[in-house]
Design a protein that fits this description.
mainly alpha; 2 domains; 15 helices; globular
Length: about 450
């Protein structure tokens, strides 16, 4: 017999799941921030190389992480059906696909310098970026497996361990960076290569901890996650691939949209590009709140979908959307009331160009307030759709919104209509609102 939950119970469970996931996503951002800051202390050319190498790594990682993210709704749905064997099969094939993908893409890292030179990058920076990527690329497989295990554990409501391992990774990253980038404590001075080694160390250590936790925790032993790991399960692999590839490509489409916006902003001016970068950093921080809530919604929707409880599924979705909207509105208020102080946190106000960046960044954060409503809604919609294992049509809706609406509107408003960087951001907002509307329409149409 199905026991109906109250809206407050739905809200409580969503937050219990979502808050640790929000924390882990913020901690993941902190990993990249510490790399950037510490390499920035080492040298300007080294910083440019790590930024270029890390962003290139992330683009490749995003596509492969789709298989890992597919594991989350598949495991949650299997648990809803009380099919513990399928939990193991789906997770194991998610790990298989992650390993295969990481091995296939590694040549891109090994021969990255010619690719970067073909993209008109500075030769010195391209050479250093290749040094970074050849080492960091070794971490692709463990990084993807870590993401699979995070999805598996999150679907089992073990989000606390995901948070604590990510926080520990930040601390380890800082320590290894300090030793290897600068040559402290008797270690060799390795510069950008030291930052890459630190990244791989963090990924391998995270994999070891999460793997041991998943294998040894008494409450999880019944899943026998690594039992006969070497045996292929072609049906489960096809299912993970079918669900995961569109997730990865959707992430690539969104990331590509923001990369294209940075290129367009760079052609407007250096001050505008600097302000754009700051505004995007702020938007990314608030975006992590929605990503965590979206993942929690994916797990809960998938569980109710597996149980066949459509009433609870719709109620859980409604509550998740309301919570996400509340977070977005709080972010809007914050950005509209304190844009200047927020931008100032990223600047050395004693430098001559800082005043112009501060003024322009304050204007962009006003537009970023609109961003919150659009971006939060579209990522929540994607999470809800993944909960019912619908990813192919959402990929099309998102790609059309980002690339056939958002980018053209940005270009039109920024250049032919002469609104510059502000117009460019309004174009992005238009694209995101289109994605939010179409994806939400898709979800509610499916669950009705």
């Amino acid at each position: 017999m199905t026991v109906q939950m109250s809206k407050s119970a739905h809200a409580r469970e969503t937050l219990v799941l979502g808050l640790p996931l929000i924390g882990s996503h913020l901690a993941q951002m902190a990993l990249h921030v510490t790399d950037t800051v510490m390499v920035g202390w080492y040298g300007v050319v080294s910083l440019a190389a790590v930024v270029l190498g890390a962003s290139s790594f992330f683009i490749v990682f995003v596509v492969g992480s789709g298989f890992a993210k597919a594991v989350m709704p598949m495991v949650a749905s299997a648990l809803g059906r009380d099919d513990e064997t399928q939990v193991r099969r789906d997770t194991r094939m998610g790990i298989w696909l992650s390993i295969l993908y990481g091995l296939v893409v590694y040549p891109l890292f090994w021969w990255s310098e010619p690719i970067l030179l073909a993209l008109a990058q500075d030769p010195e920076v391209a050479a250093l970026a290749q040094d970074y990527m050849r080492i960091a690329g070794l971490g692709m497989v463990p990084a993807l497996i870590v993401t699979v295990l995070q999805s598996y554990l999150s679907a089992l409501h073990r989000t606390q361990v995901v948070l604590w391992v990510t926080l520990a990774a930040v601390a380890v990253n800082i320590g290894v960076n300090w030793a290897l980038i600068f040559g402290n404590a008797g270690f060799p001075e390795m510069g950008v290569r030291g930052a890459a080694v630190a990244t791989v160390v963090v990924q391998v250590l995270s994999l070891a901890i999460l793997g041991l936790y998943a294998h040894l925790l008494p409450e999880l032993r019944r899943f026998h996650l690594f039992q006969r790991f070497w045996r292929p399960d072609w049906h489960a692999m096809r299912q993970v691939f079918r669900l995961g590839l569109p997730i990865g490509l959707t992430g690539l489409a969104e990331g590509g949209m923001f990369q294209a916006s940075a290129l367009m902003m760079g052609s407007i001016g250096t001050v505008q590009l600097a302000a754009h970068g700051i505004a995007l950093e702020v938007a990314a921080l608030t975006f992590m709140l929605h990503v965590g809530l979206s993942s929690a919604a994916t797990i809960r929707i998938a569980r109710f979908d597996g149980q066949g409880d459509r009433v609870a599924l719709r109620q859980a979705a409604q509550v998740a959307v309301v919570i996400s909207l509340g977070v977005a509105l709080a972010s809007v208020v914050l950005l509209l009331l304190t844009p200047g102080p927020i931008v100032a946190l990223f600047l050395d106000l004693s430098k001559a160009e800082s005043a112009a960046i501060l003024a322009y960044g304050t204007v962009l954060l006003g537009v970023a307030a609109l961003f919150q409503l659009a971006d939060g809604t579209q990522v929540m919609a994607l999470g809800l759709l993944r909960g019912v294992q619908d990813t192919r049509v959402p990929l099309i809706l998102a790609a059309v919104s980002y690339w056939l609406i958002g980018i053209p509107c940005s270009y039109l408003l920024a250049f032919p209509l002469g609104y510059g960087g502000v117009g460019l951001w309004f174009g992005l907002v238009i694209g995101l609102f289109c994605a939010a509307g179409s994806l939400m329409w898709r979800f509610w149409r499916l669950v009705r």
